[in-house]
Amino acid sequence: MSLPGDIDMHFMREALALAAHARDSEDEIPVGALVVDARGEVIGRGWNRNIGEHDPSAHAEIVAMRQAGRAVGNHRLVGATLYVTLEPCPMCAMALIHGRLARVVFGAFDPKTGAAGSVFDLLGDPRHNHRVEVAGGVLGDEAGAMLTAYFRAKRGRPVPPGSGAD
Fold it and tell me: Percent helix, strand, coil in the chain (nearest 5)?
């Protein structure tokens, strides 16, 4: 994978701000996502809403893609890039494929359910009729620290200073 460019870093910082909003305002797992069209304009934003909406499909990626689809008036998001703070799970990876997004840029790798190369490689599977370009690890340490701090706090474990809980 290539080094992230300034544009990827810029949009990942915005995704991290959405993740912090999920954590701080809604007590949701801190994952944020945004969809950027081929012109570089944000057309969808989302953060995890599973808990508050009682919806197992309300992952940040799905929320952002739903908003983007409404913005463009189409279920296909051709040429768009999804920025998300955590590697997509299988459900979200398949939504990326069905939505025909061009790229996904993610922060932290997910060693349990990651579907963009960690555990599964759904996005690169040659059996699909569409491939999504993947760039992983963009601001991954920051995204991972935010998630770790959230779960440590939920479990009553000490949160190390500077771990993303601030």
Answer: 35, 15, 45
